[in-house]
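Annex B, item 7. Sequence and structure tokens for protein A, then protein B.
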Amino acid sequence: MGSHATWSVSLGRWGGLHVRLHSFFLLFAAFTLLLGWTASLQPEMEDALLIAAASLGVLFVSVLVHELAHLGVARRLGGGSDEIVLGPLGGMAPLRSPPDAQADCLVHLAGPIVNLAISLCAGLLIVIVVDQSLIPLLHPLAPGGLTEGDASWIRGAKLVFWINWGLFLVNMLPAFPFDGGRALRAALARVWPDASPRRPAAIVATVAKFAAFALLVASFILLLRPANDVTPVPAWFALLLLAIFLYFSAKQEEDRHDERESEEDVFGYDFSQGYTSLERSTEPRQESTGMVQQWLEQRRQNCETRRRQQEADEEGRVDEILTRLHEQGMKALSDEDRALLQRVSERYRERK
């Protein structure tokens, strides 16, 4: 997607942390408000626009807390970042991961765990105070009874529960670019510590592409069915957005690892896994030499061949110079002849 600064809007620095809002979030918000305004034109759904606006506010805070959880755990374990970019489903800017695979896995799981905790707190409030079942709200696309309730705080609690529950489910998908996919990649890297970084990334990216295709099919099926429940965002649109986002993010992750592996082949180091990769790179390599090594070796051999040919030519001229020296004396020798005799004489002494 290029630079995050190009595709996002700055919200300023919050305590030294640069917070940005990605254009995906802005587009998602605009479409949600448009749907809410259209629905509010119907007499039985007059408050649809208000519900859409409230859901966007809850989503913004939930994603912000999600990213701050990632950042806090990363900084404690040796990673971190000076910037976060908020998208509709989570952060869009990668963190500087800890060098250890297990710590990296914990960093990626921190955000969804916080969303789950918020969802559980809101759920307990609904069950204990309102005395209402949470089962209808567990549907991530079409929750039942989301807009029901006499008091506004009851609707707000339901929105908090449903949105954080949805963020938890989506981000735990074992596919890029969600936290579940990155946590799975870190877990595979721990299982195969000597494998190329591209191997676990390729596995997770393949899972993501299959998931994107399945979501695309499901979105078209839902589009053809009439919607019975009132939701801030239609289920088919959420699935379509998720499918597109999933596919292109997985492709981007594959390309990034391809470029990184190419650099590793050229320079012999892979700093993406921390400084331990530098230690591994100093060990004897059993693989065949790469193109750069072959080119350097061929260049060295060509230089050695030219040097030997030049020495042979100079030694062949020595006899002719010595003949002139014997017949005509030192005056017959040029500065070049004297320098050649000196080089050949030194070469003979080195060989002895």
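Protein B:
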Amino acid sequence: MNRPTTRRSALALIACATTVATLQGVASPAAGAAARPKAPASAVARIEAQTARSVAASLASPAWRAQVRTAALGSHQVDLAALTRSAAADGTLGSRVAAADRSIAAAKGLDAGVGSLLRLRLGSDSMRAHLTPGTEPLVAATVTDEHAATVTAYDSHGRVHTLSAKQTPAQPVYVIDIDVSKATSAGLGVVDKAFDKAGLHGTKASAAKPAAGGYASTKVDAVSINDDEETWIEGDAEIFSLVSGFGQDGTVRVDSVDMPYLDTDHHTYYPNQILVNWSNYKYNEADVVMMEDDGDTNYGAFAKAIADALLTITDQGAYIPLVDAILNAVPSAWYTNDPDYVDSWYTLSTNSSGTLNGARGNGWITVEPYWVSSL
């Protein structure tokens, strides 16, 4: 499974002292199967669905449909706002997409200055051969529930089609998604600002000065995760890290580390990435928590929930594991759509090295001590 066709588990490493036409692939629930409670659609999911309807209706225009086809075949994901600025596009579609972008940014707690977030992509590489000039694709919004059995798609006549989430349809489907990498990068800026305001970055007066010539760190040499429940419509997720421990001033310190490369399960990555800067910490231990962001995360709310929890924990003069405190701070609803818990590691130290299996058994990391020399 690869990035263009699946929404991958993303990791949040919190190192701290944490539709009603029938087509091929239509879902048919097994008789007697237990019904899974359906989580309410998030604001982002509702906006994506509305946009999918609008894009599907616009494909009634042959000229515009041809342009979208060319763009979709030429790129893994297409900036929808930029595409709608084409002369072949209906002007009303462009204004709707622009409004949707602003609404998504607000729903995710991002500044409107983040720009366009909505993207269009082909649901699967296997659909490319079927995306001929005479074909009119369906349009669907991505799903974030990896247990979803069906996908709702739309055609240019406004009809609704219900597709199987597990079996990739032969008919081409354009998927409306957001650029999770871009959103996460902006979101981590929001998180860092929130943590700074809350005092989770320590104070300038108490900030540690790296030892002469550099500082000690822990570097991630290799990392891999397991996730067998992805579907054809799920697209990119994003990995980010929140690295934390007790700062030099005795309060919990949290810093973000973006990990955009980790997008495929059962694959080993070799990032050689600094995870922990030990000069920021008072003690020789920290914890690591892995989480997943499928695109719905409100970063402001996420940061506040964690900060509120961590600020209640005081330095007792010794290392205190905070994995449970952080996980308990995240609302349970976030574990279905917004960032999902993946795995955790306890008691990472300056001397930690080798391959470390996650406590949940859903991933592993290989780390080593690394001295970062000054220039």
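Comment on protein B: Residues 180-373 form one domain.
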